[in-house]
Amino acid sequence: KQIILLPGDGIGKEIMDSAKAVLLAIAAEYNHHFTFEEHAIGGSAIDTHNNPLPEDTIQACKSADAVLLGAVGGPKWDSNPAHLRPEKGLLGIRKALGLFANIRPVKGFSPLLHASPLKEEIIKDSDILIIRELTGGLYFGEPSERRENGNAVVDTLYYKRAEMERIIDKGFQSARIRNKHLTSVDKANVLESSRMWREIVEEKMQEYPDVTVEHVLVDAAAMKLITQPNRFDVLVTENLFGDILSDEASVLTGSLGMLPSASLRTDGVGMYEPVHGSAPDIAGKGIANPFGMILSAALMLRFSFGLEEEASEIERAVNECLEQGYHTADLQIQNGKQVGTKKITEIVLENLT
Amino acid sequence: KQIILLPGDGIGKEIMDSAKAVLLAIAAEYNHHFTFEEHAIGGSAIDTHNNPLPEDTIQACKSADAVLLGAVGGPKWDSNPAHLRPEKGLLGIRKALGLFANIRPVKGFSPLLHASPLKEEIIKDSDILIIRELTGGLYFGEPSERRENGNAVVDTLYYKRAEMERIIDKGFQSARIRNKHLTSVDKANVLESSRMWREIVEEKMQEYPDVTVEHVLVDAAAMKLITQPNRFDVLVTENLFGDILSDEASVLTGSLGMLPSASLRTDGVGMYEPVHGSAPDIAGKGIANPFGMILSAALMLRFSFGLEEEASEIERAVNECLEQGYHTADLQIQNGKQVGTKKITEIVLENLT
Ligand SMILES: CC(C)[C@H](C(=O)O)[C@@H](O)C(=O)O
Ligand SMILES: CC(C)[C@H](C(=O)O)[C@@H](O)C(=O)O
């Protein structure tokens, strides 16, 4: 299997090294052959190629079986013009690969749950899968421009019916293999696009009679994630709502640094990245938390390569590491041992097999 | 002063009666003359006028000094076509009156703070003023329609520069009379409208050198409201982001039923309504919490009539009521006394003066 590594900016390089080490150990253990090829993206690609998404990065990703991404962005490039911003690389690669389904599991780890901003009785037993449409909506709609001599501005929320259908299908299919409950989030009381979304959900319900469906308005969903996080199973929504709600959900468990994500298309090719950012303030210090990246590699094994056993093995090894009390500087465990990126990766490796 | 009452649907009528009683008591105490005129809006206006916003409601509101709104909506009208939905009345009256600034104070009440989903050390000392643009953006932009024979759909996020300027000014002015910190929320890494928004904030900073400004992306803001609610002072943002974030913020203190809101234009005319909805499930039972409505009336005295002392008097009376242990069914107070809408209104009246 050909895997493209896009470390990106900030702590991206350090955590990517960890994920690669874990994948090599898994390959040795289970007799798989993974090849890795590193390419530039984001701010570092702006520095080296004057382009946040160089053409050879796109080509390499297009012919790969899966892509691992570290993180992009940092203050260094914050005042760049729009086309020379690190995020352009991220948005560009999603679009170029057609990765329309962003999948984010939100589930706490018992040794870390005490760090949640929520009361324990609220957050405990929460296990949410957020599915966000990733290549449409306000992010890519045209026109997106100044008007009337700079005295007005317009962005466009555009969706094709087929784009809504495939992500809604993904929502139903995911609910079917989980707890069979789908929360569809829209703003149907205001937006025409949301009314079309809701119609499609209603149509699809017939095809998935085993899944119960609830329509929740995006503002109400933002409340309910906080007051009743354990009432969700799968949540499906469009791009911008998904951006906001998945980030909101990501802090509920109290350990953002642990969360992986997957961005998929229908044929199994996917890009995997941690939910956290590039953390420029701690880059190069050897203290970054590699778990979000390692768990993203596990999702790659599961979703792109169908290697369920290997994926679970990694997840178990990470869990064990926490149970043993090992954690990075961003986490706290009572009577735990705080260690750096390299050390904690070694412990994960020891816990494998 | 001419006040238009729009009770609307569900518990709207009950809580409006409470607010009116409190205003009459204040008028007697301070020798003011308030006249009240009731008009139809929302679902009940659909029932009586086949129109969620009858023309005479608009006219009455236009010539009034202020408007009090209960709540609109309910399952009865949920499957109506778009133009016969209760929300159309709400959106329509905002637009018709030009109420561009929605103001939502989010601050807990000590006797109720234990009900917050957040840990006490996280929520305590939080005092946020959310300012949301209310008459532009995706809510009103054209085109908003089906395309390509129903196989695509478009909504439009449109803002005039002047619309952004006036709400951003409101943000700075509000910060100036509070703790002098303004959080401006946008999605400038993706949206052209947000880039214009951010430019305007940067320009205005020169005019308000006493206010510190922080730009936060909407996804990051959704996180920070949960992890560090006490790091906010004034938050200003556009319509849809404001809808989502203000609802998110409204559950942080654990007592949604207490929160008031104001929707203003520059000349002081405003519409005041509680943050909660029409609660059709408990309508007519006499158990609704009238505090959000009563505190909205207090905001009316403050913002539209400049009656600061009278407004504070109401707020004090409500607070005292809670300190005395009185609460409605939606709230809990340890060793408190649960009472109905009428009774709790009487206690507020007793606490006045
Ligand atoms: C960096 C930004 C463009 C991106 C997005 O909004 O999609 C990020 O917030 C994310 O969620 O991956
Ligand atoms: C009812 C709905 C149209 C409205 C809005 O989205 O503005 C409501 O959620 C609000 O915040 O007042």
TrEMBL record, chains A, B:
<feature type="binding site">
    <location>
        <position position="219"/>
    </location>
    <ligand>
        <name>substrate</name>
    </ligand>
</feature>
<feature type="site" description="Important for catalysis">
    <location>
        <position position="187"/>
    </location>
</feature>
<comment type="function">
    <text>Catalyzes the oxidation of 3-carboxy-2-hydroxy-4-methylpentanoate (3-isopropylmalate) to 3-carboxy-4-methyl-2-oxopentanoate. The product decarboxylates to 4-methyl-2 oxopentanoate.</text>
</comment>
<comment type="pathway">
    <text>Amino-acid biosynthesis; L-leucine biosynthesis; L-leucine from 3-methyl-2-oxobutanoate: step 3/4.</text>
</comment>
<feature type="binding site">
    <location>
        <position position="219"/>
    </location>
    <ligand>
        <name>Mg(2+)</name>
    </ligand>
</feature>
<dbReference type="InterPro" id="IPR024084">
    <property type="entry name" value="IsoPropMal-DH-like_dom"/>
</dbReference>
<keyword id="KW-0100">Branched-chain amino acid biosynthesis</keyword>
<keyword id="KW-0460">Magnesium</keyword>
<dbReference type="GO" id="GO:0003862">
    <property type="term" value="F:3-isopropylmalate dehydrogenase activity"/>
</dbReference>
<protein>
    <recommendedName>
        <fullName>3-isopropylmalate dehydrogenase</fullName>
        <ecNumber>1.1.1.85</ecNumber>
    </recommendedName>
</protein>
<comment type="subunit">
    <text>Homodimer.</text>
</comment>
<feature type="binding site">
    <location>
        <position position="104"/>
    </location>
    <ligand>
        <name>substrate</name>
    </ligand>
</feature>
<dbReference type="GO" id="GO:0051287">
    <property type="term" value="F:NAD binding"/>
</dbReference>
<feature type="binding site">
    <location>
        <begin position="277"/>
        <end position="289"/>
    </location>
    <ligand>
        <name>NAD(+)</name>
    </ligand>
</feature>
<keyword id="KW-0028">Amino-acid biosynthesis</keyword>
<keyword id="KW-0464">Manganese</keyword>
<dbReference type="Pfam" id="PF00180">
    <property type="entry name" value="Iso_dh"/>
</dbReference>
<dbReference type="GO" id="GO:0000287">
    <property type="term" value="F:magnesium ion binding"/>
</dbReference>
<keyword id="KW-0479">Metal-binding</keyword>
<keyword id="KW-0520">NAD</keyword>
<feature type="site" description="Important for catalysis">
    <location>
        <position position="139"/>
    </location>
</feature>
<feature type="binding site">
    <location>
        <position position="132"/>
    </location>
    <ligand>
        <name>substrate</name>
    </ligand>
</feature>
<feature type="binding site">
    <location>
        <position position="94"/>
    </location>
    <ligand>
        <name>substrate</name>
    </ligand>
</feature>
<keyword id="KW-0963">Cytoplasm</keyword>
<dbReference type="InterPro" id="IPR019818">
    <property type="entry name" value="IsoCit/isopropylmalate_DH_CS"/>
</dbReference>
<dbReference type="GO" id="GO:0005829">
    <property type="term" value="C:cytosol"/>
</dbReference>
<feature type="binding site">
    <location>
        <position position="243"/>
    </location>
    <ligand>
        <name>Mg(2+)</name>
    </ligand>
</feature>
<feature type="binding site">
    <location>
        <position position="247"/>
    </location>
    <ligand>
        <name>Mg(2+)</name>
    </ligand>
</feature>
<comment type="similarity">
    <text>Belongs to the isocitrate and isopropylmalate dehydrogenases family. LeuB type 1 subfamily.</text>
</comment>
<feature type="binding site">
    <location>
        <begin position="74"/>
        <end position="87"/>
    </location>
    <ligand>
        <name>NAD(+)</name>
    </ligand>
</feature>
<keyword id="KW-0560">Oxidoreductase</keyword>
<feature type="domain" description="Isopropylmalate dehydrogenase-like">
    <location>
        <begin position="2"/>
        <end position="348"/>
    </location>
</feature>
<dbReference type="InterPro" id="IPR004429">
    <property type="entry name" value="Isopropylmalate_DH"/>
</dbReference>
<keyword id="KW-0432">Leucine biosynthesis</keyword>
<dbReference type="GO" id="GO:0009098">
    <property type="term" value="P:L-leucine biosynthetic process"/>
</dbReference>
